[in-house]
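input
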Amino acid sequence: MLRALPDTSDNSLTGACWIDIVDPIPAEIAAFEKTFGLRVPAKEEVSEIETTSRLRVEHGALYMSAPLILATGDEPWIVAPTGFVLSKTALLTVRFVQSAIFDSVRKELNVGPLAPTVIYVCVLEELVDHVADLLEASSQALDDASHLIFRRENLRRLSRESSLLRQLLVRTGRTSERMAHITYTLVCLDRMAKFTIERGREWLEPEQISRLQSVSADIASLEQYAEGLVNRIQLLQDAATGIINVAQNEVMKILTIASVAGIPPVLVAGIYGMNFKNMPELNWAWGYPFALMLIVLTTLVPLIWFKWKDWI
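output
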């Protein structure tokens, strides 16, 4: 029997094997504790990061917690601490935000009486599948960023449009942050699976132990996959930063060439702009054309030299 606690007036939970409480109120907490003799963990408790706080045994029941990820498209992901209390007679899940994951599991398993350990294994499997879907979405985002950076036809456009590079760095930075959340969630789920096998072996069926071991194996493969994505993120960020540096160097090169090529004609114009009476070219009929030709020549010579050096 699957049971949530939307109605606090109904405190008869006898026969329920999964109680899923969302942001519990005191009446719901009292109803559960009175029926099963187990304590409902508080939000501050399931938010602890120490392993000893996340995994412990009290009165024969396993108290566990993990930070689950609620993904909402391109919006920042929400990390929702969730508590699990597993005993021989019941499974309690305590969460403080709505999650479609638990709703979908509840619909799939609402077919008849099931052992709490069976439900618990199904919930863990669904959570691991959810994280795998998040990794696939992140991998697709990195593929799009990689195509944007490393395609030859995009390099010139990227070097000219700094806004695209900024967007690219923001996207890869967001993916990097998400990888940190995913990695930590996988570590916590793996600890939960191994902790359940170790401490609940006496009341776990061999099939359930095998499924929990499979969950740990899947988590290990997902962690390796996430590590590969982290390396790709670093590569893409380095590539984007390199493109920015190359673009800045091109700007500095142009400014350097312009300044060097502009110095000689400015010097010539300055000399012939002094208008001293003893200047021989002042009364020369060809003085003005000569000065113009000299300005053009002193401009072209540095440009030709830079071209010969393949700077432009």
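quick obs: Strands lie at 2-4, 18-22, 55-58, 61-70, 78-86, 91-95.
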